[in-house]
Amino acid sequence: MKVWMVHKQVGFPTLQEDFRENTCPDILITMTTPKKTTHCASEVSTEVSTRDYTVAIYYWPNFHRDLFHQSKKWQGWTEWEIVQNAKPEFEGHRQPLVPLWGYRDESDPKEMARSVDAMADAGIGAIIFDWYRYDDDINGGMMIEDALKKGFLQATNRNRVKFALMWANHTYIDCHPFAPGKSFQNAEVWRKGEVSRSAFERITQDAIQTYFKQPNYWKIDGCPYFSIYELDKLVNGLGGLAATQAALDDFRTRVKAAGFPDLHLNLVDWGFSQLLTEVKGQPFPGEPSRKIETLSDLTAALHADSSTMYTWVHHLWEEFLQRPSGQPAAQTPPKIFGPLMETASESHERKPLSAQQSAVPKSVGNDGPLTETTILENAARAGLVAVDYAQYGQRAMQLMDERPAALGVPYFPHVSVGWDGSPRNYPSGIVLNTTPEKWAGFLSQTKAWMDLHPECRGIVTLNSWNEWVEGSYIEPDTVNGTKYLDAVRDVFGASQKEK
Q1: Is the CB of residue 328 less than 8 Å from the CB of residue 427?
Q2: Residue 411 bridge partners (DSSP)
Q3: Could you give the CA distance from residue 356 to residue 257 in angstroms, rounded to a whole number?
Q4: 3-state DSSP call for residue 225?
Q5: Are 390 and 341 in contact (CB under 8 A)?
Q6: Going residue by residue through the chain (499 aa), what tens digit of pLDDT does each one get?
Q7: Under a CB-based contact definition with an 8 Å cutoff, are residues 95 and 423 in contact?
Q8: How far apart are the C-alpha atoms of 409 and 456, rounded to whole Å?
Q9: Count of C-beta atoms within a 10 Å radius of residue 164
Q10: CA–CA distance from 186 to each of 165, 174, 179, 423, 428 (Å)?
């Protein structure tokens, strides 16, 4: 959601003073939260005073000419190249995807203004930009930032929405797209995610000076919202939990010195379990008699204010694959999750579309209507793990009850559109049968959950505005137009219309 969003972490807490001070009525927050000891939160009642919501959406900023990618690919390259060259892998596979407004340059303020208007009109109140900073000398340690600096911040209507940063501190690999035989395990590493303490201070000071002080930066109780994508990379780079706690506390001190009441630290809900296996049993920083035993111990040790997801796939894919973490997808028989719930009997290798035709029943494709069931069948014949969006989303709805208790911090719920990494040659499966109507249904279920959980402050994150090559976007396309945006407006905008 980062419509949230944040989520990154997909989880989070409060939002009041700053929204009363700004001119963005679509994101005015008057909901209250239970008493909770956090760094950036005031003690408030558990009663919900109104039904206002803040929809925060993640933004993937790789649709402009970026110096780093030009050096790795070719002059003029943007991620639109991958979108345009995507190929269908089975009958009924909707690729390539085509943007309704064309293959735009997001660093153009006029084009970004068009996106801002569409978001604001749909009731989206905050954009969470994926923000890249590294501990290297390549272009000053930066990457793909012109969508924010030259596009959004120069757009004449930028104040219609708030914006925030999610530090995408993951190791950056060559997946644009994966070359044959390459995957997340063996692709070339372009930039390492771990950073030193000195680099961390430089990166966060840049965030404070360049972005937190912008008039429309998203703040919760006056505290700038800052999300961190990969906690394990941060901890490993800084040298352990105690060192990470010290670095984050120093970050807070510098934020306060810049004139803010505190920092709102959001940790994306991903990879926590892996980190816990690495640090379990270690002394709690500052409390030697206490040990790190649970996920909530991790968030408490690092003084996190909230958490949220970045995408459902981070939590659901291993579960749907039904295999131990780390086992290659190629060793897993393709399955159909949805109307059939069967294991496919065909070869486990992906087959090109031309090689599948003889295996496609006459009632499918050009000789008959494509149904949701036959589309799932066809994906399995192509060697893919196929998951129906209805089942995928229902399991994600269950996670809304599970994750807040596990993490022990205010949790901002999250809704994802879908998942299809085939344009990048991702070696995983695919979520199929996504529709605006199903998306609206999961938005409505999430809204109902939020009404029962005032501690989430009416904040929800969405994935995403423009993750085109991962099949999770609501930017208008030539098939659905603005229907996904309309669903956000219809579900979360009603309370605003009543005012």
Answers
A1: yes
A2: 307
A3: 63
A4: strand
A5: no
A6: 333 233 233 232 222 223 223 333 333 322 323 334 457 853 333 333 346 899 999 999 999 999 999 999 999 999 999 999 999 999 999 999 999 999 999 999 999 999 999 999 999 999 999 999 999 999 999 999 999 999 999 999 999 999 999 999 999 999 999 999 999 999 999 999 999 999 999 999 999 999 999 999 999 999 999 999 999 999 999 999 999 999 999 999 999 999 999 999 999 999 999 999 999 999 999 999 999 999 999 999 999 999 999 999 999 988 777 644 444 444 444 556 554 333 333 333 454 444 444 333 333 344 568 999 999 999 999 988 899 999 999 999 999 999 999 999 999 999 999 999 999 999 878 999 999 999 999 999 999 999 999 999 999 999 999 999 999 999 999 999 999 999 999 999 844 433 2
A7: yes
A8: 10
A9: 28
A10: 29, 10, 10, 18, 15
φ and ψ of 165, to 5 deg = -110, 135
**Using an 8 Å Cβ cutoff, are 103 and 367 in contact?**
no
**Which residue, chain included where needed, has tokens 């719930």?**
341
Give the phi and the psi of residue 191 in degrees, each rounded to 5. Answer: -150, 135
Amino acid at 405: A
> Does domain 17-320+389-497 match CATH 3.40.50.10300?
no
| CA-closest candidate to residue 50, choices 28, 68, 70 | 28
- Domain segments of the chain: what residues? 17-320+389-497, 333-384
Q: Report d(CA 154, CA 148) in Å as an integer.
A: 8
Give CA–CA dist 64/107, Å, rounded. 6
Q: Are 495 and 123 in contact (CB under 8 A)?
A: no
Whether 376 and 92 have beta carbons less than 8 Å apart is answered as no
Residue pair 459/124 in contact by the 8 Å Cβ criterion? no
Distance CA 195, CA 232 (A): 11
**Which pTM was predicted?**
0.86
Phi then psi dihedrals of residue 451, to 5 deg:
-65, -25
Tokens 């959004």: give the residue: 152
d(Cα 357, Cα 412) in Å, to the nearest integer? 45
